């Protein structure tokens, strides 16, 4: 599929690079899903920054290619997931300003070497999660991954409901913010 210029400007991968270095989409999403599910089944948590974007996109691609979704492969909902964005929003609710990965890395003293490059972003998300656990030991650090996952479901729902209410009061009276987490 053609890569929109706006997306290529962010991550540096355009049609030419995708054709020369990419792999068939069905093959790639199958490999990613299999590896992810293998690790989840082994008890390893998934660490992400804005998990609904990545997990929902992966599931949509799996469905598009007639492949089993993550939950179908696992036989249960995906988890535990540790989403540094959700955790940051919950433990520091009233902080003003952007909550991009780049900005959150700055706030928690995490180096982000190559923003929007998948490996760099993934490593930064893990480091931000570790920093959050250290800064908020009672609210985050002391919790087992499964309990932190359960709390994030509520935290995300509360955030989504608040954002939806704010949007409806101002810009968009019909706004709908999906409260499902970690995937839609």
What's the gist of this structure?
62% of the residues lie in helices and 3% in strands.
Structure notes:
There is one protein chain. The protein has 184 residues and is mainly alpha-helical. It has one domain. It is 62% helix and 3% strand. It is built from ten helices and two strands, in the order αααβααβααααα. It has helices spanning 5-11, 15-21, 25-41, 51-64, 70-74, 84-91, 101-108, 118-135, 137-141, 145-169, and strands at residues 46-48, 81-83. The protein has a two-stranded parallel ribbon with strand order 1-2. The mean pLDDT is 92.
Keywords:
184 residues, mainly alpha
Would you identify the regions where 5 or more consecutive residues have pLDDT less than 50?
A: none
Query: How large a portion of the residues is in β-strands, by DSSP E?
Result: under 5%
Number of helices: 10
How far is the first residue's CA from the last residue's CA? 23 Å
Helix and strand arrangement:
Blueprint: H1 5-11, H2 15-21, H3 25-41, E1 46-48, H4 51-64, H5 70-74, E2 81-83, H6 84-91, H7 101-108, H8 118-135, H9 137-141, H10 145-169
Parallel strand pairs: 1-2
